[in-house]
Design brief:
three-stranded antiparallel beta sheet; 359 residues; alpha+beta; T cell receptor binding
Length: 359
């Protein structure tokens, strides 16, 4: 029945005709969980973080602040109760098409707060429903700008873009969107399988590349090691040769100095008294020692014709020595060695002997 004041139940719609013609459809007024309207009892206590919108004689009068407030029971009426707390709204799952024509099922969570109770009451019929629809449409439009790979990589930038788009439209409704978070993204099974195959191929590619890079680095390290080993070996051989040459030079110098010192001492000894006799004795000893070693080194023996005449051999050696020491004796005439008295052997003709063999 038409009783002038009607209450349409939830999930129903009543069609109204005026003068036999269609007039309008009565729908249930959406009520929020925090929008229960209190009765005007003249003295009201407004809770914290709530704003009560008061109408006087059907027009907006004022917004009651938290605490003690007074109203006129007949003229004033509490029309809206707005919660100033942060509101969490679940965005229903919806389908969206990406830039590369892949259909996704995506849902999210919206966090918002009423900043202006007057705009939230008179700017839009149901601010929460309006923001939810705006979030869904904005999410579809933002997903259409991205490819499937970028949807997963740029999730944070996608959330920020949706929040900016919602705030630009909800500013006239007195609502501020704080953040938007995508809860879950459902991919079609075939697309999911292709993505899995792509991930596996990418991992195999990375493994192959890493293995080839490891082999290359190993070959480079082995070549560098061989190069350094050859360089160090050549440097060691060079240092060894230098040290050996230095040692041989030092040994030759030491031998030369020792020989020079021995010659000097021998010369000094020969210039003293009875020096020629000592030289004769030394030559005789060396002669006998040389003949004793002839048959030990090889089976070929070369003997002079007068091998048994040791006196003639000593006389010949002393003659050679006297011929070599004449210039030295001419330079130092003040020292005259005594004459060595050696018995003269009978005169014999000596055969010519090769000096290299007689030595």
């Amino acid at each position: 029945m038409n009783t002038m004041v009607l209450f349409v139940p939830q999930q129903e719609a009543w069609g109204v005709e005026r003068m036999g013609r269609f007039h309008r459809i009565l729908e249930p007024v959406p009520q929020r969980c925090a929008s229960s309207l209190p009765m005007n009892t003249m003295v009201l206590f407004v809770p914290q973080q709530e704003a009560w919108v008061v109408e006087r004689m059907g027009r907006f009068h004022r917004i009651l602040e938290p605490g003690l407030n007074f109203l006129i029971p007949v003229l004033d009426r509490i029309r809206y109760v707005q919660s100033l707390k942060e509101i969490v709204i679940n965005v229903p799952e919806q389908s969206a098409v990406t830039l590369d024509n892949v259909t996704l099922q995506i849902d999210g969570v919206l966090y918002l707060r009423i900043m202006d109770p007057y705009k939230a009451s008179y700017g839009v019929e149901d601010p929460e429903y309006a923001v939810t629809q705006l979030a869904q449409t904005t999410m579809r439009s933002e997903l259409g700008k991205l490819s499937l790979d970028k949807v997963f990589r740029e999730r944070e930038s996608l959330n920020a873009s949706i929040v900016d788009a919602i705030n630009q439209a909800s500013d006239y409704w007195g609502i501020r969107c704080l953040r938007y978070e995508i809860k879950d993204i459902h991919v079609p099974p075939r697309v999911k399988e292709s993505m899995q195959m792509q991930v596996e191929a990418e991992r195999r590619k990375r493994a192959t590349v890493l293995e080839s890079e490891g082999t290359r680095e190993s070959d480079i390290n082995v070549a560098e090691g061989r190069k350094q080993a050859q360089i160090l070996a050549s440097e060691a051989e060079k240092a060894e040769r230098i040290n050996k040459a230095a040692g041989e030079a030092s040994a030759m110098l030491a031998k030369a100095k020792a020989k020079a010192e021995a010659i000097r001492l021998l010369a000094d000894a020969l210039m003293q008294q009875n020096g020629d006799a000592a030289a004769s004795l030394a030559v005789a000893e060396q002669y006998v020692s040389a003949f004793s070693k002839l048959a030990k080194d090889s089976n070929t023996v070369l003997l002079p014709s007068n091998a048994g005449d040791i006196t003639s051999m000593v006389t010949q050696a002393l003659g050679i020595y006297s011929a070599l020491t004449k210039p030295h004796a001419a330079k130092s005439p003040e020292v005259t060695p005594p004459a060595l008295e050696v018995p003269r052997p009978p005169r014999t003709e000596l055969p010519e002997v090769d000096p290299r063999n007689s030595s």
